[in-house]
Amino acid sequence: MSRSAHDVALAVGEVFAGVFDQLAAWRTPIEAVIAGSPEVRPTELDAMVADLVLPRLTEPDPLLVGAGFIADGEIVRGRDVHFAWWLGPLDDNPVLGSTTEPSRLDLSTRGYTEYLRDFRALEWYRMPATTHHAHVTGPYVDHLCTCDYILTLTMPVHAAGDDGPRMVGVVGADVSVRRLERELLGPFLDVPEPLALVNEEGRVLLSTQPTLQVGQLADADAPAELCPGTPFRVLVAPAASGSN
To answer: Between vectors from CA 155 to CA 185 and to CA 196, what angle results, nearest 5°?
Structure first.
């Protein structure tokens, strides 16, 4: 029996709800460690975050390509910003080649990292800081690690302050668009009409319309179904918008 675009939108929402639930589960022990000391030792933080995220990055056919915690410098001794972030095994990566084990993100070995000095202005940090809610950034090409289209999901991490809880970092995960396509292509193909999954700007993540590729802008006037709990929509019989 064929599905409807509404069914597909629900399936998309379920996939992202699973990732957000995982971020919330990671956030709890991270906030507990922060609450235990006004200044966290980087080695202690790194060991705890690694124990949390590595099982998800090494499970069979993982959905997540990277995950971790990015801390504001005020809680990490001697750091302006601290990346406790790991990458899962990668296939034919232009930066790292093929890897069979997880690897720690080492900014000292990456080019083009100057933009991270103002990390608070980047969408994956700025939006949780502004809205106090979880956020999805992308799709965008990740030039730092994967050199591929990804989505970054982030959730604010808080510490106690004199005026109430304050955000001190984000817990997050990266999902490659190619891996997301494998997760969702079945439901999309079950619908007779061509569909496209797009973000708030109308930029395509996944499409069964041959003329629409990842990263293109789709016609926002096409009929659409909202994907619950996400900023995404499923467009029915979409066309390219004519601009990128």
So the answer is: 25
Q: Which fold has domain 5-179?
A: Beta-Lactamase (3.30.450)
**Is pTM beyond 0.85 here?**
yes
SS3 224: strand
Compute the distance between CA of residue 91 and CA of residue 66 in angstroms, rounded to an integer: 13
82-89, long-range: CB within 8 Å, 24+ apart, which pairs? Answer: 82/42, 82/45, 83/107, 84/42, 84/45, 84/46, 84/49, 84/50, 86/49, 86/50, 86/53, 86/54, 86/57, 87/57, 87/145, 87/146, 88/57, 88/58, 88/62, 88/64, 89/57, 89/58
208: its two tokens: 């069964």
d(CA 68, CA 172): 6
Contacts (Cβ under 8 Å, ≥6 apart) of 160: 35, 166
Cβ–Cβ under 8 Å, residues 200 and 231: yes
pLDDT digits (tens, 9 = 90+) for 180-221: 999 999 999 999 999 999 999 999 999 999 999 999 999 888
Amino acid residing at 166:
R
Question: Which has the minimum average pLDDT: 37-41, 54-58, 130-134, 236-240?
Answer: 37-41
The domains of the chain are located at 5-179, 188-236
